Amino acid sequence: MSTLKAVRGTRDLLPPETELWNFVEETARRVFARYNFGEVRTPIFEDTQLFARGVGEETDIVSKEMYTWEDRARAQSEKAQSLTLRPENTAGVVRAYIEHKMGETGLLQKLFYIGPQFRRERPQKGRYRQFWQIGAEVIGPPSAGSESPLRDAEVLEMLATFLDELGIAGWRLEINSVGSATDRPRYLAALREALAPVKHLMCEDNQRRAETNPLRVLDSKDPNDQEIIEKLPKIADYLDESSKEHFAAVLAALDRCGVPYAVNPRLVRGLDYYTRTTFEFTHGGLGAQNALLGGGRYDGLSEAIGGPKAPGIGFAMGEDRLILTLQAQAAQKPAPADAYIAPLGEALNPAALELTRDLRRAGLRIELGDGSFRLKKSFEFGNKLARKIVLLGEDELQSGILTVKDFATGEQVKVPRAELAQSLTA
Ligand code: HAM
Description:
Layout: H1 17-34, E1 38-39, E2 45-47, H2 48-56, H3 60-65, E3 68-71, E4 81-85, H4 90-99, E5 109-118, E6 130-139, H5 149-166, E7 171-177, H6 183-195, H7 204-212, H8 215-218, H9 226-230, H10 241-257, E8 262-263, E9 275-283, E10 291-297, H11 301-304, E11 312-318, H12 319-329, E12 337-343, H13 349-361, E13 366-368, H14 375-385, E14 386-392, H15 394-399, E15 401-406, E16 412-416, H16 417-425
Parallel strand pairs: 1-5, 7-8, 12-13, 12-14
Antiparallel strand pairs: 2-4, 3-4, 5-6, 6-11, 7-9, 9-10, 10-11, 14-15, 15-16
Helix pairs in contact: 1-5, 5-10
The structure holds histidyl-adenosine monophosphate.
Residues 88-90, 119, 121, 126-128, 131, 133, 135, 137, 270-271, 291-296, 298, 314-316, 318, 320-321 line the site of histidyl-adenosine monophosphate (HAM).
């Protein structure tokens, strides 16, 4: 029988790597709390229509990459429904915002999430079919200030702070404005006009996009089409005064806070809901899939899925890519335990478990050996797993004085049991 393996594009996360995942998530929770965000958890699958209407039918995500199935009706009263594993979380958060009438508080909602997303993409380094995002959304009625460029700058400043606290060096922020709903038709008309005489030279996908959704041509990665794309009109030239002012205000606040950025006029991003500010943080160490995170403003998304006017801005980080970057930065060593407890003989196992329990309750990280091991084996295991080894023999048990050896210095000392926890943290 052939052995069963994790499905292509999915993977198991194992210790010690999971420790790094927890560190990233703890850092996110700590930093986001300082900015007054609360956690939201939405379902992993949603009505397919949510993504079709929210993310956009013509996007790669919706047209090619979703895991969609027809859910059977289980009772006569139930209708068969098309369901989809979420390819991203913004549409789900906005649906929840609408469903729970969160706008009626009159306040901005600041929500963050951590969870798996699913896209049927071609797997490669940094690109998986099940991947994890850590994201956040700021959304609310315009009267709560949800359209203010200050919100965009605050989110970007939070991201810079988060990446710095995480210890990711060398990130780069690219930013653009894709204009408001009123700028868009003028720009699209100009794009269509520019594409008309050249589109037959482009790849099949771009020929189709030129008709249905010309903005998507701009983020095409097809190498043969880049020369044509380079010469297409730039959205910056089609922004009206208020969009220009909005973008300038975002950049001015970033300048004031010392958040470095580069304006990239071709950054349109792969989702249709974006308006005005869009951005990506990239990292050179990631290779082809170099986007650590992406985000932007989506002032019309709530209305597009049947809700009230609720402008918003947010981002999602690829957690897998944050981990890859951290691992590349410092060849990862598992954090050693504070001590390895070595009972000298099986009869001492219960006493060793008791000692281990007390040390763990004192907050220490302890590995417990086994009294059936020879001393040499205990030292070998101890050296691999912990900074120090504590020997627990009959003498130690009687006298209450334990022998502790430090693997790094080779120093061996006798420590009274009452002082053991403190001496192991030193
Ligand atoms: P996105 O650019 O599609 O935006 O994804 C955000 C990030 O998720 C990417 O920058 C990347 O780090 C990670 N990512 C995407 N696909 C994969 C994959 N197949 N494997 C590994 N990582 C991946 C969004 O999802 C928007 N919802 C972001 C947003 C929030 N915009 C406003 N609010």
